[in-house]
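Margin note: ligand = magnesium ion.
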Amino acid sequence: MTSVAIKDLCLNFGSVKVLKNLNIDIDEGEFLVLLGPSGCGKSTLLNCIAGLLDASEGQIFIKGKNVTWEEPKDRGIGMVFQSYALYPQMSVEGNLAFGLKNARMPKDEIAKRIARAAEILQIEPLLQRKPAQLSGGQRQRVAIGRALVRDVDVFLFDEPLSNLDAKLRAELRVEIKRLHQRLKNTMIYVTHDQIEALTLADRIAIMRNGIIQQLAGPHEIYNRPVNLYVAGFMGSPS
Ligand code: ADP
Ligand code: MG
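Resulting structure:
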């Protein structure tokens, strides 16, 4: 079954066409990586799916429902940003609970969800700390935890590992892969890092100037690039 369907999606900033008639069907449980150089429109596409930006044309469906004009909170998605976006004055536990409290979830259910997320992400010892008392890798785990506790259908990641050093990046890459194997939900993951794409993806969408150049499994893309751009991009890891 299709989890996220993007139909003829266009987005313009003024007269600049940033997304040009995109069509993508993402299967339930699929790990899709959006890969492309800086400025090609990856974040813009993710923000459209999340509802943080309005499409200029086209539609977005999640689990068959047209969500093009739905509020972000009603789309069943959780988003993890490069910059963590944690509330600095709140503890880790407070950060994890915040969205659930706003949704008036009962206290015992909130506690249960936080305990589960903390166990999955191995942040149990950190629950009473403030974000400033965490390392970059720990902050990113908390940011992932915030999507996890909401029990969403679709996770959106925007370059979540870009601020981390190479060793932590490699570690968290493995953890995100494990998380996906455990949760089996749909994940759409933006990166400009070929290694991340090849390790994580069920399929990779290679973007350039707001257009998908090729959408296929990692092997296919690596072995049978459709054009020189894809070949060059996959062949020169940054
Ligand atoms: P990526 O995430 O792939 O690096 P973005 O989606 O952030 O790329 O940006 C795609 C293009 O849209 C870039 O040329 C960028 O300058 C432009 N852009 C992004 N946000 C805005 C905005 N709010 N207003 C005008 N142009 C924007
Ligand atoms: Mg971006």
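The CA atoms of residues 35 and 206 lie 5 Å apart.
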